[in-house]
Design goal:
This protein is α+β, with helices and mostly antiparallel strands. It is 47% helix and 18% strand. Pfam families: HTH_animal (PF26215).
């Protein structure tokens, strides 16, 4: 968010009143990506001149062959039966997570070249991306259509283009050339829910209280939006049975750590 704010406020004329924001999300990648697509992306990555610090005892071909062996031997059990992944891969293996990120890196390159040519801001988090766009939206939609065709048939790409978008639990708005951001809450989800904590819930929730306030400080471009989000966080804890003393104590801890010179919080 800080980099986006710098792009929009410090770089002159890059955020215009007509600038659109675009988001994309690739669905079911881990479930439906073919092993051949993963290996093809890995091969492209290994011969890229951008790759440094190679492990010189293994050639690119050897690494690809080893990864092919790994992908052919990923098994899981269900109802006392043994199954093998013929496509897709599990979420919880670092090696397959790395392969999917390499696949996404390869997939995004042609889109990224267009974005860089237009001096736009770009960011990606796993299978979701966000960028600014000052050119024709029709042209951008054609680019997205082309990117969809490069994905495996069972993988769906969803996109959104507007002056107001939601991305990573943030609302991002171009208000006539001025950037406005705040925390996004999905109206279809039940409000005032705390994250599930199996062990030491009070400790976990105290950590989450601080995290939620830090996120509010980073996301909210106005003090009024920050105050509204702060009240939402307080109501979340009070609704879930935490005392007002707990809320006020953790709020004082937050202010004393991050805003010591600006705020004097008194009992």
């Amino acid at each position: 968010m800080q980099k986006l704010d710098y792009y929009c406020t410090q770089q002159q004329f890059l955020l215009k009143p007509t600038t659109n924001f675009a988001t994309f999300k690739i669905h079911n990648l881990h479930m439906n990506v073919s092993h051949s697509s993963l290996l093809r992306a890995l091969g492209t990555f290994l011969v890229s001149p951008l790759v440094s610090d190679r492990f010189h005892k293994l050639s690119s071909e050897a690494i690809e062959e080893l990864m092919a062996i790994v992908l052919k031997n990923i098994y899981f059990t269900f109802n006392r039966k043994l199954y093998r992944f013929t496509k897709g891969c599990p979420f919880n293996l670092p090696i397959t997570d790395l392969l999917c990120n390499i696949y996404l890196h390869d997939w995004q390159m042609s889109l990224l070249r267009e974005i860089r040519l237009k001096d736009s801001f770009y960011g990606r988090y796993h299978n979701m991306g966000f960028f600014t766009w000052n050119a024709s939206t029709d042209y951008l939609e054609r680019l997205f259509d082309e990117r969809q065709l490069t994905l495996d048939s069972d993988i769906k790409l969803t996109t959104y283009i507007d002056t107001r978008v939601e991305f990573l639990n943030a609302i991002i708005v171009n208000n006539r050339g001025f950037l406005e951001t705040r925390v996004y809450h999905n109206q279809e989800e039940q409000p005032f829910l705390l994250p599930y904590a199996k062990n030491h819930p009070r400790l976990r929730h105290r950590q989450w209280f601080r995290y939620a306030l830090i996120r509010a400080g980073q996301y909210c471009s106005s003090f009024e939006d920050f105050e509204e989000e702060r009240r939402y966080i307080e109501m979340t804890f009070l609704t879930n049975g935490y005392s007002l003393d707990f809320v006020e104590y953790n709020l004082r801890q937050f202010y004393s750590r991050f805003f010591r010179s600006e705020y004097q919080i008194k009992d």
